[in-house]
Amino acid sequence: MIFLDANYLVSFYIESEEYHKRALEIDDEIGDRTRVISRLIIAEVINILFTKLKVDKKLIREIYGDLNSEYTLIEDHYFYDKTLNDIMNSNKRFPFFDYVFITLMKELGIKEIVSFDKHFNNQDGIVRIH
To answer: What's residue 93's pLDDT?
Structure first.
């Protein structure tokens, strides 16, 4: 299993994104491994596509459908309380969503994340693929 971050997915689906070519290469490298995302990932991707990139609404609907059908989807709200407890004991500060993803990965035994965000580096037991 491998967890896919929102910035990877945006780069994968949107040809004009800086890391699009690399995202396609990573997709090939992953092969037939189980690709895991969460509800927050979907929300984050759609938000970026709609507000930041202003992608055509028809394409957003297509990507939304793909995210809901082509990946192993995790209900991440089960991890919010543990995540909040973890960040209260952490010296690091980065987005709550990303903390949720780290908690989710640790709890489910997922060891790798595909992300272009460097703050996933040096997380106990998690390897960032970029």
So the answer is: 84
